[in-house]
Amino acid sequence: MFERFTKDARAVVTGAVEQAGEGSVDAEHLLLALLDREGSRGSFVLAALGGGAWLDSVRRELGEARRRGGLSQAESDALAGLGIDVAEIVARVEEAHGVGALSGNPKDKGWWSGRPSFGRGAKDVLERALRIAVARRDRHIGDEHILLALVSRPGVPAEVLADHGVTYESVTWVLYGGGQAKAG
């Protein structure tokens, strides 16, 4: 599948591996790598949707979700409805085990296989990117397809982006003008 990726999409995947460090690559790492891109279709969409004003906020929100063990704000709110205070749990775990203990950082466990592994979330995003490209009859998978895949699945990346007005519909509108003409 990787041979069908454009140079920009490959750069996002490579950037995600770098973002993950020695840990498993997940959907959040793909988003962070996408946020670092310039001069690509994905970066064009993010800029068109006001990305310059909120990129740092998105990075902070992703870091906060990582501290919560990957729980989205919606999941934290649902648990609060059941009487479970996620912030209190995070505070207690970090008090006992150190800041970031719930982030699942494999460096703390001395784990490293020498090659990156992709978590279920990242694999799902890349598979969705392929499906989106095929559905649109695009010959190659670009970073814009990765962005569309990120906003089309539930989870922290989609929630954080939606808080800033980046939804599947808004991304599609910028890219394809409501299905008429392609951007770029």
What is the secondary structure topology, with strand pairs?
Layout: H1 7-20, H2 27-35, H3 41-48, H4 51-67, H5 73-81, H6 86-97, H7 120-135, H8 143-152, H9 156-162, H10 168-176
Helix pairs in contact: 1-2, 1-8, 2-7, 2-8, 3-8, 4-9, 7-8, 8-10
Keywords: Repeat
Domain Clp R: 1-184
Organism: Streptomyces caeruleatus
Structural commentary:
The chain has 184 residues and is an all-alpha fold. The chain has a single domain, classed as Orthogonal Bundle (Double Clp-N motif). It contains ten helices and no strands. The chain has helices at 7-20, 27-35, 41-48, 51-67, 73-81, 86-97, 120-135, 143-152, 156-162, 168-176. α2 crosses α8 (143-152), α3 (41-48) crosses α8 (143-152) and α7 crosses α8 (143-152). The protein is globular, with a radius of gyration of 17 Å. Mean pLDDT is 83; it is low at 106-111 and 179-184.
| Proportion of residues in helical segments | 55-70%
Q: Strand portion, in percent?
A: under 5%
Number of helices: 10
Q: Describe the sheet with the most strands.
A: none
Overall 3D form: globular
CATH level 1 name: Mainly Alpha
